[in-house]
Amino acid sequence: MEERKLRELLNSLSLDEKIGQLIQLSGEFFSAKDVSLGPQKKLGITKEMVDLCGSVMNVVGAKETHRIQDANLKNKKHPIPLIFMSDIIYGLKTVYPIPLGLGATWDPDLIQKAYRNTAEEAYASGNQVTFAPMIDLARDARWGRVLESTGEDPYLNSRFAESMVKGFQEDLPKYGIASCIKHFAAYGAVESGREYNATDMSENRLRQYYLPSYKAAVDAGAKMVMSSFNTLNGVPVTGNKWILKDILRKEWNFDGIIISDYAAISELVAHGFAQDNKQASKLAMNATVDIDMKSPCYANELKPLVTEGELDEKKIDDAVWRVLKLKNELGLFEDPYRGSSEELEKKSVLTPEKRQLARKVSTEAMVLLKNKNNVLPLNPEDNKKIALIGPYENEHELLGLWAVHGDRKETVTIEDGFKTYLNSDKLLTAKGTDILRDKSMFKGIGLSEEQIEKIVSSDSVEKENNDKAIEVAKEADIIVFAGGEHTIESGEAGSRGNLTLPDNQLHLLNKLFELNKPIILVNISGRPMILTDIEPKLEAIIQAWFPGTEGGNAISDIIFGKANPSGRLSMSFPYAVGQLPVYYSQFSTGRSVRTSTHSSRFMSKYLDIPNDPLYPFGYGLSYSKVCYDNLKLSSKEMNGESDKIVATIDLQNKSNVDTTEIVQLYLQDKFASVVQPIKELKSFKRVSLKANEQKNVSFDITSDMLRFYGTDNKLTVEPGEFNVFVGPNSDTDQYDSFELK
Ligand code: BGC
């Protein structure tokens, strides 16, 4: 529709119709049955407002979206199409590993392809917007939502933020889907890693570390932004004019839609920020929040606010304009189904090509954390018996909590994968134990007592499972233990205070250790876990995340050496919960354990645990041995901001196995007016090395890599000395220095 016509449409709408466009409701409001007594009554809004509602959340599937759209367009004075938005976070039907696993690929280009495929599935199924990517910087593994993040580093997160947004939106406006980035801002820094908690930090820290990934996503063209649940320095984001209006809209020129997180406008009252829903609505409107997700606020309060002269109707017009503009840009006025159909959906989802890409992504996401005596890869031709033991042995739930629309039946289990490599006489299997036996963990997620009873085996069945696993293990030469977290232990509202494997799995593992056989752990989890106690007793550890639809194949490809692991952690694995938040780019402090001359007690450290995580950011092994040598800088001086320095390093694959090495460049600004971290990732390269191949790798170091936010919170570069580190992970010691003149 021409812009002039769209304006005319806006001008012809009644206040109620306009408000309707600013309301988002979930699928249950549009059920074929009468909803007046159910969701509508519960939320406390009128039937008229439900009828005028402008967008629907979390309904997928061409059939259902068409039914709802048809009903919406019928008998309306102004038949404005609904827009369908959903949490399509790391795949719709073809599910990829959780984003923390995607972060571990260090392969933004590949992830862009994966997200493009997801956009294709979503488009065909009648969705036009996804609430993704979630690009909150995450440094506290207690927070269950680290699952949805690409990790702890602003630079790496920014690269993924761009590639994910581009992947979703590559084919806009005609195909693909619009991206709604979240949770703006700094939701990843909730205190103590507790979900829905407060965030408090200096503006300097916010700008330097927490905002860059959102900014990268906005610059990549994200159409929408979701305001987060948290308070930011005392002011809830959903009513925070400074962060939403001054920074996002004015500084960054974002003119897309801002949507609140789920019920976040009404929660301004619970925060103790607004005295009632009316004030909450006014605060959110003044902060330019356009759409109210699933709260009664805008539906009930905007009209009285306008008629009583407390809110300028122009603000509503501006918000509606942004909503209509997106609908128009996506072509919904011409085709309210936007090309989706049941037929196209069938053709688009879970195609062999999409599965193949998912397998590649999942393989790249695996991180080999330990491989003592090169126990891995296993050779299927060896005359050895392998026992696949543990609760994830033949489990279809490999998708993780936020793959809400994924079909578990379509998942390749680890056993399915193993069977493609091993004959049945060499493969022994036993579940051994449940994933989780603590029944209290299953409360509050809509399960009845009976359902929980079915999930958790009785004590006698558990004992039988344990015994059988031990018998099976006794017959084997090597044990692969497939364990980890239960799906419900991470994701939204999945904060935890203990990050070890569940007790029942530890109990079984300890019995298996007594057999003195090599044990390989395949760890399925939505977060970095504490593996400190069991690590010394394991021969090898593969961090497999929730690996997605093709998970079982990808794990098997790694275990049997079809693929050489190239994944590197994008979030540190803590040594103990007491370290959290733990991340590599810390400050030196006045008494660093590495450099201080104070007596050992009076340094910045713990008395009972080390400062360093068990596995640092950037870490991961492969089946090759790559040596880094001869780091050189093209000059010891950078003369002014337009100059550049080239850092080069020699890499040698001293093995007979081809590999992909993730070469990482870190910088340190040694002295600055605002203290800078001991190391910060500034660039990385994926370098493929054939067996025994040698390569020289180079990085350009430019002055924009040296910028930081000064005491005035503006970007600045200061002359002085910089250290340059190049290596295989953040713990690298190889460095050289130069001076910026
Ligand atoms: C989550 C968001 C999600 C929204 C809609 C909220 O509870 O915080 O990430 O997009 O629900 O499902």
TrEMBL record:
<keyword id="KW-0732">Signal</keyword>
<dbReference type="InterPro" id="IPR001764">
    <property type="entry name" value="Glyco_hydro_3_N"/>
</dbReference>
<dbReference type="InterPro" id="IPR002772">
    <property type="entry name" value="Glyco_hydro_3_C"/>
</dbReference>
<dbReference type="Pfam" id="PF00933">
    <property type="entry name" value="Glyco_hydro_3"/>
</dbReference>
<dbReference type="InterPro" id="IPR026891">
    <property type="entry name" value="Fn3-like"/>
</dbReference>
<keyword id="KW-0326">Glycosidase</keyword>
<dbReference type="GO" id="GO:0008422">
    <property type="term" value="F:beta-glucosidase activity"/>
</dbReference>
<dbReference type="InterPro" id="IPR013783">
    <property type="entry name" value="Ig-like_fold"/>
</dbReference>
<dbReference type="Pfam" id="PF14310">
    <property type="entry name" value="Fn3-like"/>
</dbReference>
<feature type="domain" description="Fibronectin type III-like">
    <location>
        <begin position="661"/>
        <end position="730"/>
    </location>
</feature>
<dbReference type="InterPro" id="IPR036881">
    <property type="entry name" value="Glyco_hydro_3_C_sf"/>
</dbReference>
<dbReference type="InterPro" id="IPR017853">
    <property type="entry name" value="GH"/>
</dbReference>
<dbReference type="InterPro" id="IPR036962">
    <property type="entry name" value="Glyco_hydro_3_N_sf"/>
</dbReference>
<dbReference type="InterPro" id="IPR019800">
    <property type="entry name" value="Glyco_hydro_3_AS"/>
</dbReference>
<comment type="similarity">
    <text>Belongs to the glycosyl hydrolase 3 family.</text>
</comment>
<dbReference type="GO" id="GO:0009251">
    <property type="term" value="P:glucan catabolic process"/>
</dbReference>
<dbReference type="Pfam" id="PF01915">
    <property type="entry name" value="Glyco_hydro_3_C"/>
</dbReference>
<protein>
    <recommendedName>
        <fullName>beta-glucosidase</fullName>
        <ecNumber>3.2.1.21</ecNumber>
    </recommendedName>
</protein>
<dbReference type="InterPro" id="IPR051915">
    <property type="entry name" value="Cellulose_Degrad_GH3"/>
</dbReference>
<keyword id="KW-0378">Hydrolase</keyword>
